[in-house]
């Protein structure tokens, strides 16, 4: 069976995800945007690259939600990007209406799809998509933890002058300033990070990881990160299509795990053909529990503003 993946939002993140899917040839792609010509133009450009890549993916652009019918996976990237000085929470009200409309149409045209939410503030928008679609919680996942972990890995690899491929780490909590990188669960070629780096340096890298998106926004001045978010989203899409049973951090619905219920937050999860197949609970120490709780409470506070907490 050939997969069909829809990307809602043809901006830098959405178009980059579409490009990665087509390059690897693992799915057909529909790129949807309210700006029809932008979606069609970018889709045509990617489609014309497919022969160069020896890819059989069919890529199309549209502004009509009817064209997303029967998609297996739908990725929501639509929304305004952060500007310098903006927090993710500043985006809440504007992006909530965009995501709400997308979720209504996903439920209408793709009732059996798996939804990946990228739009910021990501954890809150994922909770909103879950509430509006009425889908099972395993079918609605937020992309954030894998991006945060990748940033942490990058900074660690640079500092230690090693390949990022031998750095293993995990980041819990909300995708924002209160994310929780876990040095205790971070290894470099199997060696604990705490054996190779001072606490002060680790704390410095954690701080940079938490503000990683804002750092890019400041440098670009008129945009926000898109290469790394797109690559992180593609990893999730591939894990679903190929049923990889991949263990990654992602924003998932907690149903008692880690002591929380009814809220989305970043946790380790197995991603496979049915979406978020199993949340993995790791044993946190008291300090980590407090920080995780603070992060989840921050998410709940923002979600409560939308009136969708059950």
What does this structure look like?
The chain is an alpha/beta fold and 310 residues long. It has two domains: 4-142, NAD(P)-binding Rossmann-like Domain (Rossmann fold); 145-304, Lactate dehydrogenase/glycoside hydrolase, family 4, C-terminal (L-2-Hydroxyisocaproate Dehydrogenase, Chain A, domain 2). It contains nine helices and 14 strands. It has a six-stranded parallel β-sheet, with helices on both faces. The chain has a three-stranded antiparallel β-sheet with strand order 7-10-11, with helices on one face. Helix 4 crosses helix 9. The protein is globular. The mean pLDDT is 94.
Give the structure's gist in a few sentences:
By secondary structure, this protein is of the alpha/beta class. It is built from nine helices and 14 strands. The model has no long low-confidence stretch (mean pLDDT 94).
């Amino acid at each position: 069976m050939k997969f069909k993946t829809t990307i809602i939002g043809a901006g830098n993140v959405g178009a980059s995800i579409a490009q990665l899917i087509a390059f690897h040839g693992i799915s057909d792609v529909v790129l949807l945007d309210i700006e029809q010509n932008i979606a069609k133009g970018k889709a045509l450009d990617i489609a014309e690259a497919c022969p160069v890549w020896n890819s059989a993916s069919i890529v199309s652009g549209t502004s009509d939600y009817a064209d997303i019918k029967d998609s297996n996976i739908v990725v929501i990237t639509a929304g305004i990007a952060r500007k310098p000085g903006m927090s993710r929470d500043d985006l809440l009200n504007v992006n909530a209406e965009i995501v709400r409309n997308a979720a209504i149409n996903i439920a209408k045209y793709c009732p059996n799809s798996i939804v990946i939410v990228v739009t910021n503030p990501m954890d809150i928008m994922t909770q909103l998509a879950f509430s509006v679609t009425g889908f099972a919680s395993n079918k609605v996942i937020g992309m954030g933890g894998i991006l945060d972990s990748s940033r942490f890995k990058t900074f660690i690899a640079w500092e230690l002058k090693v390949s990022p491929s031998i750095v293993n780490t995990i980041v819990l909590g909300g995708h924002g300033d209160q994310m929780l990188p876990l040095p205790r669960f971070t290894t470099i070629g199997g060696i604990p990070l705490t054996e190779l780096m001072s606490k002060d340096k680790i704390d410095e890298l954690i701080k940079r990881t938490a503000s990683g998106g804002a750092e890019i926004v400041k440098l670009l001045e008129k945009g926000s990160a898109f290469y790394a978010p797109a690559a992180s989203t593609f990893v999730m899409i591939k894990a679903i299509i190929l049923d990889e049973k991949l263990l990654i951090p992602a924003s998932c619905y907690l149903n008692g795990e880690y002591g929380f219920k009814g809220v989305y937050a970043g946790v380790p999860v197995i991603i496979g053909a049915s979406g978020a197949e199993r949340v993995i609970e790791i044993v946190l120490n008291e300090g980590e529990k407090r920080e995780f709780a603070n992060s989840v409470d921050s998410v709940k506070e923002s979600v409560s503003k939308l009136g969708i907490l059950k």
